[in-house]
Amino acid sequence: MLVSYFVVISNVVSYQYFIETNFLFTFLGVFIGFALTLYTYLTSMFENMKKIIRTKHSEDVKTRDEKLKLLPLLHLEIKENIIFLIYALVFVVLVAVLNEAIMSIDLCTLNIEISDIKNASMLTVFILSILSLIDLVQTSFTISDFIIKN
Fold first, then answer.
1. C-alpha span between 119 and 74 (Å, rounded)
2. Binning pLDDT at 50, 70 and 90, where does residue 68 land?
3. Residue 73's closest CA among 139, 20, 123, 130?
C-alpha cells in the first residue's frame, strides 16, 4: 500500500487507467472466471496425481504419504488466490458504491488527500491481483508439469 501511495503522490508512472472502477471491475471479473475455470481443471487432475504418486512411490510409503499430503496444499493455494480475487472485486464494488461518502472524508489535518488514498488502494488491488494470478498460473504449471513428467 505504501508503494502504491508513493506512486500516486509522486506520479512516477501513469497509473490512472488501472485504478478506474470499470477497468478493475472488468479485469477482476474476467480473471475470476479464468481462475474458476483453472480451478475446475486442476482439481480434476488431483485424482491422476494421486494415482501417479501411489504408483511411483508404492515401495516407499513415507515418501508416498509426504507427497500425498502436499496435494491439499496445492488445492489451498489455488483456493486462496481465487478467494483473494473475489474479495478484491467486492472491494472495488464497495469503493464504487461508496465513492461519494469516501470522497467526503476530510483528512486535511493530516495533510493527506483522500483521493490519493483511494487511488493507492485501487492500485494496490490491481498489483496484488496480478501477483495472485501469477501465483495461480505458476501453481497450475507445477501441477501440469508433474502430470506430464510422470
1. 33
2. confident
3. 139
